[in-house]
């Protein structure tokens, strides 16, 4: 596909220079009513690290990563993202607005704007949120669409594209904000099998280019290949984590063993 993510800028802010982890989550607790969805989660993610989160449906994977860009509130604990503190119950904070511009997210459902062309999907946030001039936003959009292999689709509307193409537009759209961190929530789960590879390829290139990524996925082969670290969540708790070889080939926790026996 000729993907080349080389000149996606990874900016060198003070946090990066200091080597401070981009995500610092300490004893984070999250409840939905009486359901204790996240239980004392401790998670640090370093600059440039690729972390893959695995676990059964309903274990809290989405909720955990949605806390990181403030799509979910949490009730207690500490959360610092790229040097900005997110407070418990902190929906409207200034830090949250900043974080949302620095953290990109790709969802299972592509969530493209159906009434906008592919190009306009990608230019919208850079123009509205970052104040880029249209010509500059278009230049960036076309470069990114080229990188994910769909520049020739720029004038089409989302409904005219395959699922794999739509998800690559979603990726280009997130990258157009030059995020410091990318979150992926089962980005290939809604795709027909033959389209999974093209999306994973684009993500693989991004990882190679040094992007910090947290990826929830059931694609275990991909996880093994790209992850610096794999985290296994069970009923709202991180019960095991480590390099892919350790977690996949030598899981120590019985719950991890049972989960992997079902999915591998
Ligand atoms: P996963 O992504 O691992 O499948 P989720 O984070 O989506 O798990 O969900 C964890 C638990 O929280 C599940 O029991 C789910 O039903 C519940 N849950 C998720 N979102 C909500 C919500 N908005 N309101 C109430 N319960 C929720
Ligand atoms: Mg989920």
TrEMBL record:
Q: Which UniProt keywords apply?
A: Amino-acid transport, ATP-binding, Cell membrane, Membrane, Nucleotide-binding, Transport
Q: Name one GO cellular component term.
A: plasma membrane
Q: Domain of life here? A: Bacteria
Q: Which PROSITE patterns does the entry mention?
A: ABC_TRANSPORTER_1, ABC_TRANSPORTER_2
Lineage, highest ranks first: Bacteria, Pseudomonadati, Pseudomonadota, Gammaproteobacteria, Oceanospirillales
**SMART domains registered for this protein in UniProt:** AAA
GO terms of molecular function:
ABC-type amino acid transporter activity; ATP binding; ATP hydrolysis activity
Location, primary (coarse class)? membrane
User: Where does the protein end up?
Assistant: Cell inner membrane
Q: Which organism encodes this protein? A: Halomonas huangheensis
Regarding protein family, the annotation reads: Belongs to the ABC transporter superfamily.
SUPFAM superfamilies tied to this protein:
P-loop containing nucleoside triphosphate hydrolases
RNA-binding as a keyword? no
Q: Does the keyword Electron transport apply?
A: no
Q: What is this protein called?
A: ABC transporter
Q: Which InterPro entries match?
A: AAA+_ATPase, ABC_ATPase_HisP-typ, ABC_transporter-like_ATP-bd, ABC_transporter-like_CS, MetN_ABC_transporter-like, P-loop_NTPase
Q: Which Pfam families match?
A: ABC_tran
According to its record, how does it sit in the membrane?
A: Peripheral membrane protein
Span of domain ABC transporter: 23-260
């Amino acid at each position: 596909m000729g993907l080349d993510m080389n000149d996606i800028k990874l900016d060198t802010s003070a946090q990066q220079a200091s080597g401070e982890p981009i995500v610092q989550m300490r004893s984070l607790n999250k409840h939905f009513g009486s359901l204790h969805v996240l239980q004392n989660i401790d998670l640090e993610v370093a600059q440039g690290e690729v972390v893959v989160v695995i676990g059964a449906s309903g274990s809290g994977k989405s909720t955990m990563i949605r806390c990181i860009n403030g799509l979910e509130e949490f009730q207690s604990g500490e959360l610092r993202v790229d040097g900005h503190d997110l407070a418990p119950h902190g929906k409207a904070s200034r830090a949250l607005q900043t974080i949302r511009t620095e953290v990109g997210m790709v969802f299972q459902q592509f969530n493209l704007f159906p009434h906008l062309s592919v190009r306009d999907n990608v230019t919208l946030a850079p123009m509205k949120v970052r104040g880029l001039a249209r010509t500059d936003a278009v230049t960036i959009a076309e470069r990114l669409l080229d990188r994910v292999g769909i520049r020739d689709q720029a004038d089409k509307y989302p409904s005219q594209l395959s699922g794999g193409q739509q998800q690559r537009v979603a990726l280009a759209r997130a990258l157009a904000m030059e995020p410091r961190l990318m979150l992926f929530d089962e980005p290939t789960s809604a795709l027909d099998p033959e389209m999974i590879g093209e999306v994973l390829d684009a993500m693989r290139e991004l990882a190679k280019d040094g992007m910090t990524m947290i990826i929830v996925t059931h694609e275990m082969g991909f996880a093994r290949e790209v992850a610096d670290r794999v985290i296994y969540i069970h009923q709202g708790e991180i019960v095991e984590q480590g390099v892919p070889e350790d977690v996949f080939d030598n899981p120590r926790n019985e719950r991890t063993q049972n989960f992997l026996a079902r999915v591998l």
